[in-house]
Amino acid sequence: MAVIGAEDNLQIHRIPQSKYVDSVRWLSPLSAFDKFAVLALHDSDSDASSIEIHALNRSNPTNLQLQSSWVSPSRVSSLSVSQTPQKPLLAASTYEGSLHFLFVDPVDASPETELSLAEKSFHRGPISGIDLQGNGFECVSVDEDGRVNLITVGDSRLNYRRLFDSQGLVSYTTAKWASPTEFATGGLGFSLQWWDQRKPGGATSQFKGNWTRGNTSGIVHSIDIHPSRKHVCLAGGSSGTVFAWDLRWQQQPIVLSGLIPGETATPLSESEVWEVQYDSYMQSSEISNLSSAKILPVMMCSEDGFLAVIEQGEEPLQVLAEPCAINSFDINQQNPSDVICSLEWESIVILTRM
């Protein structure tokens, strides 16, 4: 595996935390000179959970300045950020089944308004995945109970409706918007579903992915969709598997890492792939030259401590190799050279690609 770790092209800052970091996200600031990071934290000693927003000091990147903190009623299961026309919006789901939205002041990153949904009829148990529209006020939530819900965030209230309920016959673990009306979900058996609100009654397309290890049923943990190629759904999950599902050729996955049927390919990782994102930094110089049939560069993090970039047909590029799990990461869309990730051993890593 090729390594991107030389000091001349990668700056790495490891920042210890006193609590377990469940998820990390960049927050879009009002000024291009500011950087804010959102951390979902859990204190195992007190069983207390919170969401903290920190400012990054440009002259001293290892110095995080706490801007604000919000106490969560339960441990955060999923975290999403949206840049609405007025101000940033945070969404956090919990393991007790509640969903919370925080409007954030774009100048000092302090929460201004909180809206919560804690109805027991919303989901039967822990919410496994949520996603906010990138520049909008709609959120999709999914769970292993088989329910798919849509939530609209207003100025002072929340409206939600159940788009689908499989009655537990299908379990969903993650979701991602593709357009204002379309989104994808993933779940058990490496399955993926494509939904269109203009076509009610269930998913408009489905991919059943029991194609990796015989009778072993994998799980999709994370999915991503590129805004310029919404017909391709990227997925990462069990056994080091990273693959793409092209809606134009729906029955055959495009495997980027993992065990390919009929071949003896060695996966980049053999553990859980916790998160995948299209890597806009690697794409910036070549996206216009890439064939529409080729999958754009992908970044992934795994249970066995890898943060890596995968390009179709190329040797993977190792960005980080940690002695513990990398639970989540986020690429700064305002400055794609900046990446933040959370480590299992109570710390975060901020790296800048030069």
- Report the radius of gyration as a whole number of Å: 19 Å
Q: Main sheet: which strands, in order across?
A: 1-26-25-24-23
Poorly predicted regions are none
- How many alpha or pi helices? 1
Summarize the biggest pleated sheet: 5 strands, mixed
Number of strand segments:
29
Describe this entry's structure for a reader:
The structure is a single chain. This protein has 354 residues and is mostly beta strands. The chain is 1% helix and 51% strand. The protein has 1 helix and 29 strands. A 5-stranded mixed sheet has the order 1-26-25-24-23. A 4-stranded antiparallel sheet has the order 2-29-28-27, with no helix packed on it. A 4-stranded antiparallel sheet has the order 3-4-5-6, with no helix packed on it. A hairpin with a 7-residue loop joins β21 (242-246) and β22. It is globular. The two termini are 20 Å apart.
Provide the fold topology.
Elements (H helix, E strand, L loop, with lengths): L1 E2 L6 E7 L3 E8 L8 E8 L4 E9 L7 E9 L3 E8 L4 E7 L4 E6 L6 E7 L11 E4 L5 E5 L4 E7 L4 E8 L6 E6 L4 E6 L4 E5 L8 E3 L12 E7 L2 E9 L4 E5 L7 E4 L15 E6 L1 H4 L14 E5 L3 E5 L6 E5 L4 E6 L6 E6 L3 E7 L1
Parallel strand pairs: 1-26
Antiparallel strand pairs: 2-29, 3-4, 4-5, 5-6, 7-8, 8-9, 9-10, 11-12, 12-13, 13-14, 15-16, 16-17, 17-18, 19-20, 20-21, 21-22, 23-24, 24-25, 25-26, 27-28, 28-29
